[in-house]
């Protein structure tokens, strides 16, 4: 029985359109160019940040975040960045008595912005706030801590096989792969994803059927 559901953020809770557009604008390249490069690194199974390194070899991504903030062009999130099924799904899950946690690979600033949206979640936290990122096992140890239940009663939901499904499964959690975004769509039918994911879903609203079964 699932008692807690933990959600990834990018391309699970939020759309990444504006995120990548802002990076393209900051690096002064066409948005289509960076979008295509993101697709290329996804197809190779590389980290998304490799797209930035293809544009600017040797880029210090953390330093660029700071430079963007200093220039008043830092991260931004609002209601328009949420997928349409987020509020209905999270609200329905909480009504069923499920503890809802959002925990992904984002900066502390992203955590603040997400919490300002007043989402129907019991906890919202980011890797930047924890000081450890997916797919490191320590991240999922923290997930288990905040889930407030045993690993086998905790479901981790995400689009990214290498960052979400595989390490969560290795930590003893149940897993749901979401067919959403570049990673979610391209890798949805990969044999290892099919084998490792306990469930595969196309919408977050399908999760109510899982926990209610």
From TrEMBL:
GO terms, molecular function: hydrolase activity
Bilayer-crossing regions: none
InterPro entries cross-referenced by the UniProt entry: HAD-like_sf, HAD-SF_hydro_IA, HAD_sf, S-2-haloacid_dehalogenase
Known EC number: 3.1.3.-
Superkingdom of this protein's organism: Bacteria
Gene3D superfamilies: HAD superfamily/HAD-like
SUPFAM superfamilies: HAD-like
Name the UniProt record assigns to this protein: HAD family hydrolase
Annotated organism of origin: Streptomyces edwardsiae
């Amino acid at each position: 029985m699932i008692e807690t559901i933990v959600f990834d953020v990018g391309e699970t809770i939020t759309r990444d359109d504006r995120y990548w557009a802002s990076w393209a604008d900051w690096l002064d390249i066409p948005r289509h160019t960076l979008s295509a490069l993101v697709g290329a690194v996804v197809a190779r199974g590389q980290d998304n940040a490799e797209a930035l390194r293809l544009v600017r070899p040797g880029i210090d991504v953390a330093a660029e975040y700071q430079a963007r903030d200093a220039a008043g062009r830092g991260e931004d999130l609002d209601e328009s960045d949420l997928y349409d099924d987020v509020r209905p799904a999270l609200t329905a899950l909480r009504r069923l008595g499920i503890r809802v946690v959002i925990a992904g690979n984002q900066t502390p600033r992203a955590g603040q912005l997400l919490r300002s949206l007043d989402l129907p979640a019991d906890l919202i936290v980011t890797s930047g706030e924890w000081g450890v990122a997916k797919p490191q096992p320590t991240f999922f140890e923290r997930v288990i801590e905040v889930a407030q239940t045993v690993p086998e009663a905790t479901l981790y939901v995400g689009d990214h096989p290498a960052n979400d499904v595989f390490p969560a499964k290795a930590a003893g959690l149940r897993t749901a792969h979401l067919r959403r975004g570049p990673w979610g769509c391209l890798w949805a039918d990969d044999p290892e994803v099919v084998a490792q994911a306990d469930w595969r879903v196309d919408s977050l609203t399908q999760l109510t059927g899982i926990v209610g079964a």
